[in-house]
Amino acid sequence: MMYRRLKGIINSSSGESSLELLVLMFKILVITLLIFQLSIFLVDTTKYYFAVNETIRKAQSEGVISRAYFDSQLLRFKIQPSSVRASASPDFDTYVRKLGDKLTLRLQYNFSISFSEFWSVELPITIRASKSNQGYYGEGYGGGW
């Protein structure tokens, strides 16, 4: 549809540049840049989701959210652990009390969008994952055996 409109403008103006053609080309450029930024955002956010989901999956079976494992997952995707803010419930490296207790991992980072040095936007992105403990029975389990 855009191609037909562009071809019609060129044919009607006998190949000469016109303001309408310039505006149309600028619109196409802006839309292309937005689509490009969106694809970068999706790839970047997916890396963080993978790191959070893998960490919470392991914590579900072990009953503890390990800070060392979480940092290794971030480094696996070439993300510096110091560039994100993460919190866990219960705290990192603290075991839950019993089966079925909730494990929550929350990560926040800033995604920057910039088209030039004149225009830049920082978006705070939060990723949260929760699971219940499925593998750690708790302290004192089987103590009377």
Q: What this model shows, in words?
A:
By secondary structure, this protein is α+β, with helices and mostly antiparallel strands. It has one domain. It contains three helices and three strands, in the order αααβββ. It has helices at residues 2-12, 19-62, 67-76, and strands at 85-89, 102-116, 119-132. It has a three-stranded antiparallel sheet, with helices on one face. β2 and β3 form a beta hairpin. α2 runs antiparallel to α3 (67-76). The chain starts with a helix and ends in a 13-residue tail after the last strand. The model has no long low-confidence stretch (mean pLDDT 85).
Which parts are unreliable, with pLDDT below 50 for 5 consecutive residues or more?
none
Total domains: 1
Distance between the termini: 77 Å
Number of strands: 3
Can you list the strand order of the major beta sheet? 1-2-3
Average pLDDT rating: 85
Number of helical segments with 4 or more residues: 3
Strand proportion: 15-25%
**H/E element string?**
HHHEEE
- Which percent range fits the helix content? 40-55%
Largest sheet: 3 strands, antiparallel
Basic shape:
elongated
CA-based gyration radius: 25 Å
Kindly name the structural category: alpha+beta
Descriptive tags:
single chain; 145 residues; alpha+beta; 3 helices; elongated
Break the fold down into its secondary structure elements and pairings.
Layout: H1 2-12, H2 19-62, H3 67-76, E1 85-89, E2 102-116, E3 119-132
Antiparallel strand pairs: 1-2, 2-3
Helix pairs in contact: 2-3
